Amino acid sequence: MAGLNGKFALVVQALRHLGKEAVGPHEIETVRAALTPAEKHKLVRDTRYGVEWIYKVANRIAEKTA
């Protein structure tokens, strides 16, 4: 989580707390609704070199952003 701040640190911390197996469509949609398109892209960029499953979840959160 080094280098993350604000909302992004909270999102990553929440994902870690829930754990890989507990993050499903409901959780992804909740985060998706809370972030702007720019924030979603920043989340993906900021998690790229972290834990792989969190990066994959970040991509799923940003998927429907156009």
| Rg value | 10 Å
- The coarse silhouette is globular
Whole-number count of domains: 1
Encode the helix/strand succession as letters. Answer: HHHH
- Provide the β-strand percentage band: under 5%
Task: Give the structural class.
Answer: mainly alpha
The share of residues in helices is 55-70%
Number of helices: 4
> What is the residue-averaged pLDDT?
89
Number-wise, the strands total 0
Keywords:
single chain; 66 residues; mainly alpha
Describe this structure in words.
The protein is an all-alpha fold. It has one domain. 68% of the residues lie in helices and 0% in strands. It contains 4 helices and no strands. It has helices at 6-18, 25-34, 37-47, 52-62. The radius of gyration is 10 Å and the shape is globular. The N and C termini lie far apart (27 Å). The model has no long low-confidence stretch (mean pLDDT 89).
Task: Outline the fold blueprint.
Elements: H1 6-18, H2 25-34, H3 37-47, H4 52-62
